[in-house]
Structure formats: C-alpha cells, structure tokens
C-alpha cells in the first residue's frame, strides 16, 4: 500500500528525532572513551570530541601498574557473583512468603520493609552493628548486609502477585509442598523480574567502594577494584598539584604523562566495561521485569 504524504513526513520526522536522541545519548560515552585514549598533555588543551587527537594507552597502563589492582578485581568479581546469587535467592524467598495470602504477618512485615526505605539507622549505628556481628575485617561484610533488600523484595512480590494463585493451589492438590512450589513453579515464572533485580544487585556490588573504605580499608587482601581506582584518582589529583608527590597503593611515583582528567576517564571505562558486557544478555528480561511487575490482571 502506497504511503500518503503525511505518513512520509511523519516517518522522516520520527527517524530524524530518533537519530538526534541516539547521537546525544551516545556522544558522552564516546567522548569519555576518546579522552581516555588521548595523550594527557594534549587533553588539557580541550576540544576532544569522539576521536582522540593523540592516541595513547598510557592512561590505562598507568592504572594497571598499581599494586593491589588484581586483588581488588578478584574481590570485586567474587562479591558481585556471590552477592548477586544470594541476593536474588533471598529476595525471591522473602517475596514468595509475602505474596502468600495465608501468611498471617504479611501486612506487618511488608510495612516494616517499606519503612526501611524511608528511615535508616545511620552510618555509626551501622558500623557498630557490623562490628558486633564480627563482620568488620571479613569478606562477608560485602555480602550479608545486602542480601535482603526491601526495594528488590517489593519488586519481586509485585510480580508474584500478578501470577495466578490457581497454579499454587493445583500444585498443592498434586502433593507439592511449599518449597517445591517455590522452586519448580514460581521461580521459573519469575525469570524476568529475577533478572531485573540481578542486574540491580550486580551493578551495586560492582560499583561499591564505600563499604571497603569503612570496614576493610586497612586490609589489602580484602580491597576491591572500585576502592583501588578511587585511591588512584584521589592520589592522581594530589600529584597534579604537587610534582614531587607520590601516588598509588605502594608509593608509585607520579607519572608525568597522565592527568587527573585522563585517569578519571580511563577509570570510568574500566569500571563500566563489565556492566556493558552483562547488560545485553539481561536487557530482554530487564524490560519484561519492569513492565510486567507493575501490571495486574
């Protein structure tokens, strides 16, 4: 069928608008990548767009010369994998319990969880709690405090509330217990929303550094990648004002061919690459989880 003149104009305007949105969305990422691959001395001049003027890998070489970076990468990977798996399982279990109409304390527990989104104990009470639980100075301080997240539980429970309760009733009639219903029926149906919160948890675990600073800042064997990169950026900024300054986790002398701006952009690229690798595989589930969880039949 031949398109009318109005349809043709609409199509052109639509594609033009989408192209514009695509360009302004992609440009900041390309600009960060270009600066990270550009010579630091030349970067100070400004004017870098989406292509480096003087290509160099010195910024990345400088980052990976620091001690404890490999240890930090291993710890960040472990906390991301373990924290995501345990966080998804625990959130799903709590959400399944709260979605059950026969759970007597459903309203009280749900209200308590919602209150934690508005109020918290604060930094000092939180540290005292971790200390009294003997988690300070251990790897599990990265995992246990975030296993049960109220926001993730609410998302999963909203999704489960949209599932037909008749599925559970029919499974009970066939002799299935609560664990079998949860593991064999509910979890497979909740794949989209579980992938959604898995992405939330993984990004949070991968990007976290403040808990390392609070609980394991003096323990090099429990350092994380983000914490080490934060120290590199901080010490690079100091060295830019003091030519005789030393930076790095073990006192590496300040390189003269890097700048805080170039190091900052290189660090941004290093930290975002793992998320960019994982996100395409979860994108389909992410969209489904965010939309279906809000729809009730």
TrEMBL record:
Residues 73-282 form the ABC transmembrane type-1 domain. It is found in: Cell membrane. Coiled coil: none annotated. The keyword Transmembrane helix applies. Gene3D superfamilies: MetI-like. GO terms for cellular component: plasma membrane. It is a multi-pass membrane protein. The keyword Transport applies. InterPro entries: MetI-like (IPR000515), MetI-like_sf (IPR035906). Keywords: Cell membrane, Membrane, Transmembrane, Transmembrane helix, Transport. The chain crosses the membrane at residues 12-30, 77-96, 108-127, 139-160, 181-203, 263-282. GO terms for biological process: transmembrane transport. PANTHER family: ABC TRANSPORTER PERMEASE PROTEIN MG189-RELATED-RELATED (PTHR43744), POLYGALACTURONAN_RHAMNOGALACTURONAN TRANSPORT SYSTEM PERMEASE PROTEIN YTCP (PTHR43744:SF9). Belongs to the binding-protein-dependent transport system permease family. This is Carbohydrate ABC transporter permease. It comes from Peribacillus psychrosaccharolyticus (Bacillus psychrosaccharolyticus). The lineage of its organism: Bacteria, Bacillati, Bacillota, Bacilli, Bacillales.
